[in-house]
Amino acid sequence: MRWTASLHAPARINVILNVAPSIPVEGSRPTPSSGLAALLPTLKALSQIGSSSPSPSECVELLDLARQRASFHQNEVHDLDWPGLKKSLGEATTASIDVHSLSERHHDAQFFVSEVRRLLRASEVPSVLVVLTTPVVFESGEDLEPVSLEGLPACSVVYIRYNAAIRGRERRARMDRSMSHGRPPQDVADQLEATLEPLRPRVFDVETPEQMRRALGEIEKLVLASGEQSSH
User: Fold this and answer.
1) Exposed (0-12), middle (13-18) or buried (19+): which is 107, by Cβ within 10 Å?
2) What secondary structure letter does DSSP report for 110?
3) pLDDT in tens, 116-165
4) SS3 of 225, please?
5) b/e per residue, 49-65, with b = 16+ CB within 10 A?
6) Which residues of 121-159 are buried (b: 16+ CB within 10 A; e: fewer)?
7) Exposed/middle/buried for 216, CB within 10 Å: 0-12, 13-18, 19+?
8) Which of 49, 104, 108, 143 has a beta carbon 3.0–4.6 Å from 65's, enabling a disulfide?
9) What is the pTM of this model?
């Protein structure tokens, strides 16, 4: 079965924003919310794409992988609950993590996989899943089993990875270090993408507003194509 098959009904847009910390750049301090400043406007734009339908069918969820919880969830989005979302962001980016979360830290990836399956299975119509994230590297021993396709409806998956760690001077410095050692610069590591591989996600690595707009344009095309097909 092709999991990017043609959609014959208005697509439900499911948006997952991963609020896990970005990968720190060598020589810099970790900044848990550094990628959120770029991803939040994208979340707003996606909610506007969904609400352009007379009867928007959309779910927005913030996942706190470190605590293995959905820190924010809003269904049937007409307007984003910004006060609730900002409160959840504040709680997710604090430094403290409870003992239980620390003891279960090797299951962070499987928590993400289970949430993806839950959102997709809850869709009564074909859906477009959009994952907004910065690169994620898990601890050694993490269970990285990818999502199972069993029981999932047809869907399209778009994975937008904001590479905050390789912008500007940091990116040039990393390239200079690589070239001085006689090897090409390597991509930023990310283990989260692989958990979605069976769904054949369309992956967009973005560093600039223009690249982000291009990714949003592709998502809008998926939604428009769905509406046109359902009208025939």
Assistant:
1) middle
2) H
3) 999 999 877 778 899 999 999 888 889 999 999 999 988 899 999 998 65
4) helix
5) bbbeeeebbbbbbbbbb
6) eebeebbbbbbbbbbbebeeeeeeeebeeeebebbbbbb
7) buried
8) 108
9) 0.78
